[in-house]
Request: fold
Amino acid sequence: MIEDLTFTRRDLPRELEIQVLAFMRIVWSDGWPAEDRSRTRLWEDDRAVHFVRADGNLLVSHAQVVVPQLERGGRRLRIAGVGGVMTYPHFRGQGHGSAVMRRTTEHILTDPSFDVGMLFCEPEVTPFYERFRWATLPAGRVIQLAPGGPEDVVMTVGDATALPDVLRLEWSW
Ligand SMILES: CC(C)(COP(=O)(O)OP(=O)(O)OC[C@H]1O[C@@H](n2cnc3c(N)ncnc32)[C@H](O)[C@@H]1OP(=O)(O)O)[C@@H](O)C(=O)NCCC(=O)NCCS
Reply:
């Protein structure tokens, strides 16, 4: 039976973590940093939350909220970073990705510790996120400085005015 589950990073079952990581290695290998090639654990983030649809140990769909530690002008940016949005191929087009993104978005909009949610995606996927009130930022508002980093569009939900006029990021999530 496919269930909706939510885990903190600490509580995320190892079987599910491995499936998240395997999907990332296969599907997003372009932006995979060389130093992470032998990575067997997700990047450390005590505040990360995982929104999952799973059938027992079998991962169907996933999205995570990470909390990047970013300060600009002496002010901490209260950004919820969304990443790892995935549905395993056999289960696509059945509403699982939407269910996971709806819960992820709700979490961001109701957690007072965040001003804004942010994600990076290919332009073709923006209609998927627009269904959950995410909007594309104008080009140049967020600049990714990582060499070889993804040339994705940046989408936000919540209060994008909380961001600096131009946000330069050395890495993204
Ligand atoms: C994007 C993704 C997570 C959607 O998962 P899913 O479980 O198939 O999503 P749903 O079944 O809830 O689809 C909802 C709607 O979004 C649309 N949609 C799904 N994937 C889409 C995509 N890549 N681009 C545009 N629209 C998409 C579907 O057509 C569907 O529309 P419908 O309800 O009118 O049929 C899944 O296709 C996936 O894992 N893709 C590969 C990884 C990826 O690109 N992740 C996003 C990284 S930013």
Remarks:
- Residues 27, 61, 85-87, 92-98, 121, 124-125, 127-128 surround coenzyme A (CB under 6 Å).
- The domain at 2-169 is CATH 3.40.630.30 (Aminopeptidase).
- Residues 96-110 form the longest helix (15 residues).
